[in-house]
Amino acid sequence: AQTVTQSQPEMSVQEAETVTLSCTYDTSENNYYLFWYKQPPSRQMILVIRQEAYKQQNATENRFSVNFQKAAKSFSLKISDSQLGDTAMYFCASRIYTNAGKSTFGDGTTLTVKP
Amino acid sequence: DTGVSQNPRHKITKRGQNVTFRCDPISEHNRLYWYRQTLGQGPEFLTYFQNEAQLEKSRLLSDRFSAERPKGSFSTLEIQRTEQGDSAMYLCASSTGTTQETQYFGPGTRLLVL
Q1: What is the pLDDT of residues B62-78, one digit of tens each?
Q2: Which one of A37, A38, A44 would you mutate to disrupt binding with B, by most B Cβ within 10 Å of its Cβ?
């Protein structure tokens, strides 16, 4: 069974600053994907960034980057130059290669970007 | 591409009543997923379809829950004899079914059982 843990229920950051959201996971599989999703208030969830477990290079998408530590089973999200529109709930999730359907999500971190 | 749509967006019902939700995936997406999200928690997987075939069901999906995707396009999720514990956001997602698929989520249907 897979588990995903997000230990920070709430975080805040000043506009234009950098913030890091933590995520740890547990799986017995070697091949899996990791994701960060963003769920703005009253809006639908969208994918922020994904990481394939076999890739050592950390994924980046514009202001968003991850720190993937496979041995430690850690997958943190760094948001640089935070913007007011980044205010949302952020979910970390995992999915093993051989199970196309089931993603396992953490309980989320509510991020507030303050002006 | 209009995205994943779900109807209704909100549903209030009395305990014991049946409810049905609909999900319309992105055109040509052959995988469709249902998740349930309760307040303060992340989405929990319920079931998924590859075209019209239901390939996996979570243990969360009790006998009162049934999902269909009759023609491999839209899907319905029915809850019979609703209970207060069924109150949650029900999320639908779809994907192309390729190896590196991305799941695209709909806005969800928020159910409140009184």
Answers
A1: 899 999 999 889 999 99
A2: A44
